Amino acid sequence: MTTNGGFEPVFCTVVPPHVLDRLARHDDPALSGPARRTLIRDSELRGRRRVTTEFGLAPAPRAKAPSDQPLRTVYDAGHGTALPGTEARGEGGDPGRDATVNRAYSGLGATFELFLKAYGRHSIDGDGLPLDATVHYDEDYNNAFWNGEQMVFGDGDGEIFLDFTIPIDVIGHELTHGVTQYTANLTYYGQPGALNESMSDVFGALIKQYTLGQTAAEADWLIGAGLLAPGVTGKALRSMKEPGSAYDDDVLGKDPQPATMDDYVRTGRDNGGVHINSGIPNHAFYLAATALGGHAWERAGRIWFDVLTGGELPDRALFTDFAALTVKAARERFGDGGDEFRAVAKAWEQVGVRIL
C-alpha cells in the first residue's frame, strides 16, 4: 500500500516492455516507430497514474450496477488519447458495425459473468463497479491496459500486433488487474509483481475457457492467441502450458519466460521481471488444473480466487507465501488429503517453489 493508505500506483499493460524495447530498436521504421510511440505513451500514462494515486486525485463516485448484472460502457477514442472518448455502446445497447466495440462489450460481460457465476463476486470491486472500456486508442498503439479505473485498447500496428480486443483473455487479463487492485493489491515489483501478472493470466485464461466451455484438457493455455500478426513466428504472448514457447521470431526474439525456479530471471527491467517470472506461477496453475481435470475454474480457479481475495495474502508476497496459502486454501475448501490438496502441492514442487 502507499503511505497515504491508497492503492499502489500500478499501470498494467498486457504487452511486456521487453517486447516493445526490442521492437523499438528495429531498423525498419514501420516496426520501430509504433513501438517507440507506445513506449513513450506508456511511460506518460504510468507517471500520470502515479501522480493521480499519490495525490489522491480519485475519480468522482459512479452509480453501481445491479448486483447480478454488469453496467458496461464502451467508448471510442477515435485514435486520440483523451479518455474515455465518445460513447459507442452502453449497457443493453444493440451491436453496431464496429467489431472492436462489440468485442470489447462482450469481453467485459464475459469477465463479469465468470467472477459472478463461478465465485459470487459482483464486478471488479465486488460491489457492482461499472465496467468502462475505450477502444481505438491512439495511432498504431501496441498495447492494452488497465489504468486503475478503466480498460483501454489499442488497434495494434498491423505488422506485429493486431486489434487488442481480439483475444478475450487479454480483456480478462487486464480487468483482473482491477480485481487484484481491490483485493490483495500486490506490489508491482519482483515476485509480488510476477504474482500480480500471473493472477491476471490465470483468470484471463479461465474467462476464455469459461466462454468456450472448455475443460482444462481441451484448453490451449495461451495468453493472447490471435493477437500476433500473420507474419510473426509465434502463437501468443505467453504460454502457461509451456512458458518460453509462445514465440520465437526474428523481430520479437524468443519468449523469455521460465517454467521453473531453476531458470528464474533476475533483472531490474520490467519492474524486476514481472512479465517474465510470472511464467513460474502460471505453470504451477496449469499443472494443478490439468492434474485435477474438468473445468479449471471450478477447483484450481476456486483455490486461487480464495487466496487472492481471502485477506491473508500480503501485498509483498513471494512465490513461497502464495504457494503455502494455496495449499492451505485447498485443504480448507476441499479437505485435507484430497485430490485438490495433492495436485496443488505437487504443482508447486514441480516448478521448484518450496512450501514452507
Brief overview, please?
The protein is of the alpha+beta class and 356 residues long.
Give me the secondary-structure category.
alpha+beta
Q: Mean pLDDT across all residues, rounded?
A: 91
> Largest beta sheet, briefly?
6 strands, mixed
The largest sheet has its strands arranged as 1-5-6-4-2-3
Portion in strands: 5-15%
Could you please describe the fold and organization of this structure?
The protein is an alpha+beta fold and 356 residues long. It has ten helices and ten strands. It has helices spanning 17-24, 29-54, 99-119, 168-182, 190-212, 270-273, 279-292, 300-309, 319-334, 339-350, and strands at residues 12-13, 72-76, 86-90, 131-135, 144-146, 151-153, 222-223, 238-239, 248-249, 253-254. The chain has a six-stranded mixed β-sheet with strand order 1-5-6-4-2-3, with helices on one face. Strand 5 and strand 6 form a beta hairpin. The radius of gyration is 19 Å and the shape is globular. The model is unreliable at 1-7 and 49-59 (pLDDT under 50).
Secondary-structure map with pairings?
Elements: E1 12-13, H1 17-24, H2 29-54, E2 72-76, E3 86-90, H3 99-119, E4 131-135, E5 144-146, E6 151-153, H4 168-182, H5 190-212, E7 222-223, E8 238-239, E9 248-249, E10 253-254, H6 270-273, H7 279-292, H8 300-309, H9 319-334, H10 339-350
Parallel strand pairs: 2-4, 4-6
Antiparallel strand pairs: 1-5, 2-3, 5-6, 7-8, 9-10
Helix pairs in contact: 1-2, 3-4, 4-5, 5-7, 7-10, 8-9, 9-10
